[in-house]
Amino acid sequence: MDRAAAIVAAGGGVPVIGVFGTHDADAILHIARATGLHGAQLHGEGPPARAIALQAAGLEVWGVALLDDPTTVSDRVQQAGLGADLVLVEPRLADGSGGRGVALPWELVRAARIARGSGRLALAGGLSPDTLATAIDAGTPDVVDVSSGVEQEPGIKDAHRLAAFLEIARDHRPAR
Q1: Count of domains observed in the chain
Q2: 20 to 30 A Cα–Cα from 66, which one of 5, 22, 76, 96?
Q3: 0.70 exceeded by the pTM?
Q4: 86: CATH
C-alpha cells in the first residue's frame, strides 16, 4: 500500500482511482483510506451493493463493461452502471480479460454511448494520439483512459505522444 499512497501523493491533488477485481467493499475502503484513493474502478461481476456501499462511504465508483458483441452491449453497460458514477468500456478479449492496448470497435463504442444515455462514460483500450479524435466522435466519452498508446516501448511513456494525446483530449469536439 505504500506504493499506492506514493502514487496518490505524487498526483498533487489530482483524483486517483484504484483498480479492483473481486475485492469486497470493506477491503476496498480499507485500501482507499490507507492510500488516499479518490475512487474505485470495479472489474468483475460484483454485486451492485458493493458499488453502493463505496459511494455511501464517499468514493467515486467506476463500473467496467467488457464488450465484444453488439447484442450484449446494452446489458453489459447497464449492469456495470448499477450503483456506479461512471461506466468504463473496453474490449473483452478472447481470454475474458480487457484492455491491453486492444481497440474497441467503433460500433461498440457508439452502442455503449446509446446504452449509457446521458450517464458518464469512459473509454479505454487501444487509444492513442492517432485514434483519439475518432473515438471521441464515436462515443463522446466523458473520460479517456490511455497507457500503451502513449508509450515508446512497453512501460516507458513517450512525452511527445502523451502531450499530443492530452491536447486532443482537451481540444477535440465531437463531430455532430
Answers
A1: 1
A2: 5
A3: yes
A4: 3.20.20.70
